[in-house]
Amino acid sequence: MELDSTDWALLAALQTDASESNQALAERVGVSAPTALRRVRRLREAGLIRAQVALLDEDRVAALQGQGLTALAEVSLDRQGDEHLQAFERRAVQDGAVQQCYRVTPGPDFVLVLRVADMPHYQAVAERLFTQDANVRNVRVFFATRCAKFGTQVPLRAGG
């Protein structure tokens, strides 16, 4: 699939605010509303747009709920064969507390971003993902005290 400057402009605009109307999106990128609608549909069908979601302010939601804890975990496995990496990855991505899961190198095998209500909930996650897995050799966890930046945008080259 080849993308032109309009496609790239639509992708960039949607990353900034996917909640605006199709008419406003079309005006922002300088095309007609039917063109914007058709192009966005094509980009979605091609799998370039995975989902359109609302991003919640974790700190404000946590304040309303009473608590919230973000942890970053480095996980090293004893056996790193592909089947072992895939098995851990499957378990991690199925856990609701895991917000992001990355295979990394060098160093640990995985870095996980976890979001839980409080320390007892973190301990339950640690038991499920780390303690019960005989292949987990080492886990280093960092608890976030403040988030200075959180981004979701995929960098796009100017004009594609």
Automatic annotation (TrEMBL):
GO terms for cellular component: cytosol. It comes from the Bacteria. Residues 3-70 form the HTH asnC-type domain. GO terms for molecular function: sequence-specific DNA binding. GO terms for biological process: regulation of DNA-templated transcription; response to amino acid. The keyword Metal-binding does not apply. This is AsnC family transcriptional regulator. The keyword Transcription regulation applies. Keywords: DNA-binding, Transcription, Transcription regulation.
